[in-house]
Amino acid sequence: MLNAPTRDIGSLDLNYGLWLGEWFETIPDLQWPRTVETYSRMRYDPQLTGVLAAWTLPIRRATWAVDPSGCRDEVVQVVADDLGLPILGADNKPGPARRRGVRWSEHLRLAMLSLTFGHMVFERRYEIRGGQARLVNLGERMPHTIGDINLNPDGTVASISQHTAASQPIPAERLVWYVHEREGSNWAGRSIMRAAYGAWLLKHELWRVHATSNRRFGMGIPAVEAPAGATPAQIAEAQRLASAMRAGDQSGVGLPPGFKISLSGMTGSAPDTLAFISYLDQQMSRQALAGLMDLGQTPNGSRALGQAFLDLFMLALQATANEMAEMATSGHAGMPGIVTHLVDTNWGQDEPAPRIVASDVGTQHEVTAEALQMLMAAGAISPDPELEAYVRQTLRLPERAEELPPPAPAAASAKTTPAPPEVDPEENPEAEPETAQEAAQRRLTRSSARPRKGRAATGQRQMTLDEAESGVDPDAVQSLWERALEALLAAWKSISQAWRDKLAELVRAAVDGRNLPALAHMHLDSEEAEQVLNEALVALAEASAQQMAAEAAAQQVPVEPPPVDEGHLGAIAAALAALLAVWLAGAAAREALRLAVPGADGSDVADAVTDHLESLSDGFLREQFGGALSTAQMTGRFAVLDAAPAARYQALEILDRNTCPACAEIDGTVFDDLDAAKAVYGTGGYIDCHGRQRCRGLVIATWRGTL
């Protein structure tokens, strides 16, 4: 049997937090609850106001977030949403403004009053929404309203009573309690201004004395001397004249014959009041480790000394921030923290709870060209689109302009036919369906833990619960589109080869015939290209319709995918094929015109034009094909939504490599109806996207609460 203690022998002295604590504190003004009034006066002293600002502002500007380590995504998302905090490592960009619920920045500002008064208390309030208890308010219970702190036998808080109208005791389990330097059962804590009380008291007394001495002795003491042998009446008159003298622009005095007037200043040495007041200010800063505030006022010091002061001060700030984060997360015995109570209420005490963390207190890393260059040279970072967007935003640079004129497609020799895009087994609507909760959890986990297939990880945000409940799998949607794009590019190689051969023939004829204007009228047959494009678009639209039907089935809404609009897709294929033929002919004509010097051989010019076209990348084709395939993808999805019952339609911009401001603004928008969604996503991506064809926005649907 283990020989481990299982019960206490000693006990916590309950009186320490009550009369015994006041006995240890011999100054009546510093015995709770009178401390609240005392510290309220002290915090308006200019020096102490600066000390409090130095302690609170760096902590308030620090990065506060929810650390999801070891916790389920659903739990983390609820905690982050209710507290208005980002998720550490997932939410790299500011979210939308909060209109309801807890605003963490405001709560933190009030919670830091515990440094001023020693303690700060909040009362939590929930509302039941969607079968869950959601935190909607942390109401501050200001220290001056607390009349009694009622304790349990073990020294923990049982309840508090407020001396306000119609108040009733608030039980401890409803309280969030921040306390600074608690000892024993002294839940009132200790203010960081406690050690400054003596200096503050003397300073304000000296202020009054110094002001009085300036008023009294600033102009000297007037004296009127009566003539020799003066009568008592003359002496009294001299006294009246001296007492009546006042300083002013028009002041003056008239004296009877024999009277003399003089101004007598102070003689001898006098205490240097201002120096002593400065000394008291330094003591008030020093007791709070804020001595760096006085470096410019002291007779000695150095930059190294200032840095040492700053380093020590920052360590103290980080320790204080960590302590407040721990209290907000886990609370105290009998008074659970904000996070643990929220998790316990919804999922039970066995559910792991995320933590609130505060990082980089007091630090600020400036983004400079030199720093970026050194990091890239060392291989620590790479110049990807996300980094460029961050640098442009940080340095307030304009957004990237539209790209330069696109290059021509690359050459190939074999003719292939695009195969219909494959559908993953997990996307097959005939497979055994998961429960809605299992599917949502899988999508949340995959979205946050795995990079996109075939793409570099770009740090996209984590899916919300509403997005996960829609059944959408961003990985599967993106993978389907990418496979269709690669298949289309492979099939296009034979089209490109045929077009280049035809253009070489036309260039040769125009140059040899000395008919350069004919270069502007070169024509390519786009019929076969139209057929290849049409087959690719229809195949992707049908596969996307299957995906959308699977998303509906995951929500227990069976929908048979209807035929896609092949007429609309065929029109897109015809237009795009003709435009690409005209564009390629124009690119060949411009290069031929550049090379066709007088007397040039047509075959040589044609070969050079062919080499030029073959040397260009397929970037332009990828962009044009990608835009057309995005249209086909949304065409298939909208076909299913047209056939399905009315739902809740929402914009999703999680697939973009680099989300532009317009897409960031539309992201998460809930549309009034399906027609409103089609108005902005009918051609594929968001119609106002700055990247145009590159946009990978989607429309998702949820039927919960609409059927």
Count of helical stretches: 22
Q: Structural class given helices, strands, pairing?
A: mainly alpha
Strand order of the largest sheet: 3-2-7
Taking the sheet with the most strands, its summary is:
3 strands, antiparallel
Number of strands: 15
Shape: elongated
- Helix content estimate: 40-55%
Give the low-confidence spans: 403-431, 440-459
- The radius of gyration over CA amounts to 39 Å
Q: Give average pLDDT, whole number.
A: 79
What features would you describe in this structure?
This protein has 707 residues and is mainly α. Helix content is 47%, strand content 11%. It has helices spanning 19-24, 34-42, 46-61, 73-83, 104-111, 113-117, 197-217, 232-244, 273-286, 303-330, 338-347, 369-377, 385-394, 436-449, 465-469, 474-512, 527-554, 566-595, 602-615, 619-643, 661-666, 674-681; strands at 63-67, 119-129, 132-141, 146-151, 157-162, 170-171, 175-179, 221-225, 260-264, 331-332, 335-336, 355-359, 648-652, 670-671, 698-702. A three-stranded antiparallel beta sheet has the order 3-2-7. A three-stranded antiparallel beta sheet has the order 4-5-6, with no helix packed on it. The two termini are 60 Å apart. Mean pLDDT is 79; it is low at 403-431 and 440-459.
Q: What are the main properties of this structure?
A:
single chain; 707 residues; mainly alpha; three-stranded antiparallel sheet; elongated
